[in-house]
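subagent[fold] <- orchestrator: predict structure for attached chain, return tokens only, no commentary.
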Amino acid sequence: MPVPYQGADYRWYEDRPVNGNDFNMMNDVAIFAGPVMDMYPNVTAGELKILLDRGERFFLIDVLDGASFEKERIPGSINIPVESIERDAPGTIEKDELVIVYSLEPTCGANAVGADKLSTIGYKSVRRFKGGLKEWKEAGYRVEGTGVSLTGRPAGAVETARKAA
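subagent[fold] -> orchestrator:
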């Protein structure tokens, strides 16, 4: 039996007609973004860097699409797009593992939706890196991918810096 729509609840119910304000077409999910954005603990860029540098055991998930992941990502991350989390995460990650999800930037709700989906299917230790790739790069940390130069900076950044000098 489908769960009925419950007013201000943030979750998507398939039996409810889609309202244009509920649908985030970029992430192919329907949500009430406001409440879910602050439901899960946030990790800062500095905290994430420390975890990575220490070699702590956790899964860092980029929830953007595969093309975005290939172009630019935080080193050590894996890609499980937000729309396939329910299908792909259980075969990849144990439910008692620490999982940190990130997306593009603080205003991108994909990491919140990803965290919520993981929690909903039984993951016990889910965190968000709310700042995403934008905060990571602004902190001066290295990224990798096909759109990244040998310096670990986005392609074109070195050339732009040279022209400015």
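orchestrator: received. Logging for downstream: The chain has one domain: 24-164. Confidence is low (pLDDT under 50) at residues 1-33, 154-165.
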